[in-house]
Amino acid sequence: MSTAANTAEEPIIKCVGLQKWYGAVHALKNVDFHAARGEVIGLVGDNGAGKSTLIKILSGVHTQDKGDIFIEGRNVSITGPEVAMGLGIETIYQYTAMVPEMSIAQNFFIGREPLKFGRPGLGIVDRAKMAREAMEGLRGVGLHLRGPDTPVKALSGGQRQGVAIARAMHFRSKVLILDEPTNHLSVKETNKVLDHVVELKGLGITSIFISHNLHHIHPISDRIVAMARGEKIADLPAGEISVDEMTRMIS
Amino acid sequence: MKLNVRNLMARPEMAALLIFVALFVVFSFINDRFFATGNMTVYLQPIPELAIVAMGITILIIAGEFDLSVGSVFGLSPMVTVLLMQNGWPTAAAILAGLMIAALIGFGNGLITLKLKIPSFIATLGMLFMARSFAVVLAGGFPPIFPRELDVSWLVGRLDLGLVTPRVSLLYMIAIALVLGFVLRRMDFGHWIFATGGHPQAARDMGIKTERVKMACFMLCATLAGFAGIIQSFRVKVIVPNLGTGLEMQAIAAAVIGGVALTGGVGSILGAVVGTLLIAMIENILILSGVNANWFMFAVGAMIVVAVVLNTQTRLKAEGMKG
Ligand SMILES: Nc1ncnc2c1ncn2[C@@H]1O[C@H](COP(=O)(O)OP(=O)(O)OP(=O)(O)O)[C@@H](O)[C@H]1O
Ligand SMILES: [Mg+2]
Q1: pTM of the model
Q2: Predicted confidence band at B1 (pLDDT cuts at 50, 70, 90)?
Q3: Domain of A215: which CATH number?
Q4: What is the pLDDT of residues B259-278, one digit of tens each?
Q5: Hey, which residues 174-193 in chain B have their CB within 8 Å of chain A?
Q6: Are A41 and A207 in contact (CB under 8 A)?
Q7: Residues spanned by the domain of B112
Q8: Residues in A lying within 8 Å of B, measured between beta carbons
């Protein structure tokens, strides 16, 4: 029994038998899911298939009613977003989790401000560090914005997603979940987001990418997971399925 | 440099500050009794009480909630304090109890709003009546007599600054403003307050416990209202159960004039103070000029509209400016 070999092969995320009800709606029916280090997974399915429900459980917004989640082999209970983030799971939402009136630097560190003094909730924020690291993080994803004090409301949708991705990177995410991050974005901005995902793969970061645009998903994914009516209906390498076959499968 | 102008214009209290400076100059010219030492002392007298309430309201509105019960708490807290002193409690303990009642009411507001998921506007409207009723019942038909011999100089004594002699309470107000301003701008909890009101879902998804943040703001707002009520009752050395009736509207007016946005996520402590200074200044000049006092409400109403319009315009301008 070689434990070292086991950990190397251990998927970074593994879900077993996930179930979720919203009242009478059975949104997830016994779903198994796994992702390896550095893997890009395209999660597809029709409206209401349960994609968002699955990833919201992983990002701590909801908790499953049944089933287990293992992060790097460890059984975890993700009771809130801060728990997920603590485990290295960062989420990029379609709506961009940013407060428009607050600055880029403030949004970058929202809820996780670096402190000069004190403890979280009773601390004095280190504003110089926030400005410096936010700008470094943005340069890291190739974004050159006006300055750390610019309010986020002054940014375009694509720039906001760029800040969200840089933020996720800064906090050393192991798993990046992107739930329809390219809706409302221009073609150019969409390509930028897709490029980011490919770059992250090079850094060994796992991405779970949800989109209704199969042409976006297919080229960047290693594996396609398809859902319908709360169940996983397919899970196969992207090379083994074409966009047309994917379209037929989920519609 | 240009960037600084833009940032300055984008500050929520900018419009109120401009109106304040302009009116101050105008009033000094049109009435030579306005900028006179005696009048400035009179002018500053009620400022701390309203400003402290307005600051609490401002923080709560930034967090995305509302409190209509501050006027009632303003009356209830000193009622409790004075009654306890009558019963032989030491002053400090009686004041502490008054503040704790206020905090408890804030907790109740938070509980009703957050757990039962009803708008704070409704929850605190209910509390407005309940807390007032409580004060009236406690007074028991005969308002308690304020202990005349009590030493209140530490709270509302005269502060001889040469030109003006405001009350010591002005120092308390300044201290509270500095602390709250520091919390809002420099502490992580302040960021959480702005995030909670500015975009609740983003705040939650980023791991901020928005309900706890709001609860803290409800309790802070009520406690400040209670403290302000204690200051006023100690200043006038009277306690009546209807103390602070209608005060919620003035405090909200001060907060709004000071640039707080009812949508949450925007506002400042300085704005609450300047808003208060403006309202008190309008009242002062009307009295000085012998104008029918009933014009006061008209003037405050007009100022709310002017300040908010001006605010919206300067902020839009600031956003349009390229830095
Ligand atoms: N908060 C909720 N309360 C009640 N029902 C919900 C909730 N969220 C989702 N549902 C229901 O659960 C089912 C799965 O929804 P989910 O959002 O996971 O689908 P999805 O695959 O993300 O769809 P879309 O592509 O439209 O985003 C749907 O029937 C939906 O109506
Ligand atoms: Mg969805």
Answers
A1: 0.93
A2: very low
A3: 3.40.50.300
A4: 999 999 999 999 999 999 99
A5: 186-189, 191-192
A6: yes
A7: 9-317
A8: 59-61, 80-82, 85, 91, 93, 95-102, 106, 109-113, 115, 118, 120-125, 127, 146-147, 149-151, 153-154
